[in-house]
Amino acid sequence: MSDHPSRDALGRYRAGDLAPAELLAIDAHLAQCAECRVHGLTSLDANRELRAALASSHATHLDYELLEAYTDGLLGDSTCETCSEDVGDLRRVRAELSLEAASSPSPAESRWASRWLPWRGAIGGLAALGAAAAIAWFVAPEPDSGPGVGEGVPIEVATAPPRLELRDGALSLAVGANGSLAGLPPGLPQEMRQRAEAALSSGRLAESPALDNLRGPAGALMGSVTAAPEFGPLGPAGTVVESDRPTFRWTARQGASAYRVTVFDSRFDELADSGELTGTEWTPAKPLPRGVILTWQITAKTDQGLLRAPVPPAPEARFRVADTRTLADIDQLRGAAQGSHLLLAIAYNEAGMSEAAAAELDALRKQNPEAAIVAALSDSLRPSRP
Questions:
Q1: What confidence score (pLDDT) does residue 79 get?
Q2: Residue range 325-353: average pLDDT?
């Protein structure tokens, strides 16, 4: 309606004594006209009604129209604690709607016009429930009328399925489309989380710098006796080992009657000697020093004489026993990893302990036999030796 409603019409509007069409017309006008809202809610009759209600010892709480007037600051402050709380609730609702309007004016204005004004008469009719309960009913989401139908319909964001899922010890890991990894133990250092994400994204474990001095060029060991190409050490070679009494293994030489293992330090001083052996494995009786580069050689006793390996141009069989600090760090991780083979494989690999890392990945592969990513990680631990 283009003209301002009369004071009589405003009074009947407050009393609810209008036909539905007139009620809606004045309601729409009040939504746009601040002047009529002031006149309509601050009339002498309304003030007298308010004063009489407050003065009565059996006064009821304010109806919705008067609560709204207090909310707009048109009637000062309420002296009733209950009504003051209701006014505060209404003001908080309006503040929230104002914040929404600042970020998206059109939807917020539409929501205010379509939801607040038409329902305020109904909220007033729920006075017996209390204004706070009425507000809770008012701000509840509207029933879903179908995707994309109506304003303010809640939109459910579809969650993309994980790109990769793995069983890892007692853990269930999931890699999202963006490479993020979920399911790792809580409290894990962020750096380790990033390394795990990088490993599952790239499908490889980078060679550790700890191996730089263990896979060097060929060198000359003790003795000048040559060896057959098929005869030589299997391990440890080009790696870091956990035990200070590692098991040495080598390939058998056809026709050999005995073998002998000799371990040297970096100056080629002899540290351990196995004596004559008939098998292809040997574990030293005494511990080897930790944290230093060691080299070993296998000698086969044959009818043609002694055959040693490795000899140039084959590289030396170098290894190192892990130092105590490295082992302490891995033990600490083991306590936090909750049986994660992936995390332990990463830690072992970074320490240069490639055999231990491979063992953890083998365990992970048994849990996930169809996971190509685990096979790729295992393959990345088998670089060609120089």
A1: 52
A2: 93
Domain limit, last residue, from 321, 346, 366: 321
Residue range(s) defining the domain that contains residue 103: 42-139
- Separation of alpha carbons 201 and 175, rounded Å: 8
Neighbours of 228 (CB within 10 A): 16
Amino acid identity of residue 375, one-letter, is A
**Does 12 reside within a domain?**
no
**Distance between CA atoms of 247 and 234, rounded to whole angstroms?**
10
Range with lowest mean pLDDT among 9-23, 86-100, 151-165, 248-262: 86-100
Q: How many domains does the structure of the chain reveal?
A: 3
- Choosing from 304, 321, 338, the residue where a domain stops is 321
Question: To the nearest whole number, what is the mean pLDDT of the chain?
Answer: 74
Shared domain check, 347 and 305: no
Distance CA 190, CA 180 (A): 12
Residue 146 lies in a domain: no
Look at residue 31 and tell me if it is in a domain: no
pLDDT at 164: 85
**250 backbone dihedrals φ, ψ, rounded to 5°:** -150, 165
Q: What is the DSSP string of 149-180?
A: -STT---PPPPPPPSEEEEETTEEEEE-TTS-
Say whether both 258 and 306 belong to one domain. Answer: yes
- Radius of gyration of the CA atoms of the chain, in A: 41
- Give the pLDDT mean for 34-58: 53
Write out the DSSP string of 187-237.
T--HHHHHHHHHHHHHT--PPPGGGTTTS--B---S------TT--EEES-
Torsional class of 371: left (φ above 0), alpha (ψ -120 to 50), beta (otherwise): beta
Of these ranges, 19-33, 114-128, 288-302, the one predicted with the greatest mean pLDDT is 288-302
305: CATH: 2.60.40.10
CA distance 357 to 365: 12
Which CA distances in Å does 153 have to 143, 147, 150, 325?
8, 8, 6, 59
Q: Which residue has 């701000």 as its token pair?
A: 139
**For residues 100-127, average pLDDT:** 41
Is 18 inside a domain boundary? no
Provide the pLDDT for residue 215: 77
Q: What is the mean pLDDT of residues 10-25?
A: 73
User: Is residue 116 located within the same domain as residue 245?
Assistant: no
pLDDT greater than 70 at residue 48: no
